[in-house]
Design a protein that fits this description.
heterodimer; A: mainly alpha; 3 helices; about 85% helix; elongated; B: two-stranded antiparallel ribbon; about 5% strand
Amino acid sequence: MVRRTAVTSGEELDRPLARQVVVLMRGGTLACVVLLIAGTILTWCDRDQIARVAITAGCAVLISLPVLRLLLMLHAFKRRADNIYTAITILVIAIIATTAALLFVHP
Amino acid sequence: MCLEQFLFLGAAATAASALGSALGMAGGIFIVPLLTLCAGASFPAAVAISLISVIACSCASAPQFLSAGLTNLRLAVVLEVATTLGALAGLLTVGLVRDQVLYGIFATVLLVSAFQMMSGRRTRDSAIQVGLRLGDLPPGRSRSAAAHRRGRIARRLRLDSSYRERDASTVRYEVARLPTGLSLMFGAGMLSALLGIGSGVLKIPALDAAMRLPIKVSSATANLTIGVTACGTAAAHLIAGDLNLTLATPIVLGSLTGSALGARLLTKLAGTELRVVFTLVLLALAIPMTLNAFGARLGGLW
């Protein structure tokens, strides 16, 4: 049997969160696959402009998944008033935003 | 791009990420050589595509690990502070480093990974895990005072956790030497941004050796972390418009397929053969990458 102690209290709370992340990842990767396949088919049909849009969107969906996962975690940590982890998650999101904006500022 | 090239890149990416995910890493380490040596992409272009393939591997195989209860979500987010900072540092330095030097670093990473693969990852459980698994040692009694001190930050962050084995036994584990682990993860993030890889090469010493995580937890948590590590840099490349969409499509589709199917199919036949194949491929790729580091300019089979 699993022993529940004060140390592991977060574990129980993490389980529903993990399930939400699973749904996010499955849905997100599926959307990405659909967009990329659509883009490929459109390329072969010589519809280059719209194909580029579809493929860029597919890549953007994929890139946004880890950030959405962090937002999901942020929401969960905030709801259970876990201040340390709320702060840590915000910090990670802020670092990612800085990184992404870097080439924007210094191309 | 013609159909043959598309299929070749897609199949190669599928194989790379299937092989990678079966051994608990992303296939990024194969993608950069594939793109530079076969598809004739420049090193920075290959890195941009490879980063997206790393995210693909992370997202496609995360559900499996999460459903199995192996991923430590809180540990992942703590590690991500270090890896994303490393990625930021990597992106800031990438303009200062010549491509030849990057080829050199890449070749070194390939060789070190090959060595790691042959020597195998730590299989013994730490004393604490074994003790608690048997259920006859009360927590705290089995730990030395030094180990107790060492894990103070980890306990403060409530990182210690447990997972369930296939035989329904529960394995409890503690996170040791968090500062050492975080330093190595900073390096892993930097390598990831510079080389477009998941940096399993540094995560193995960080999570397995320094932090003493059970291998399954280490693989699952690292798998989730690499996505976040790569996404800032990947977004930067996408925004700047230096992502080659034509090359990216087959690679990303292949990586998604490979890592979604790979872990399931290959863990059944995993073992020594798989490791030998992996090592041989790593060594074979190290040769042209080393030559390029010395200015050979190999690449562009088509």
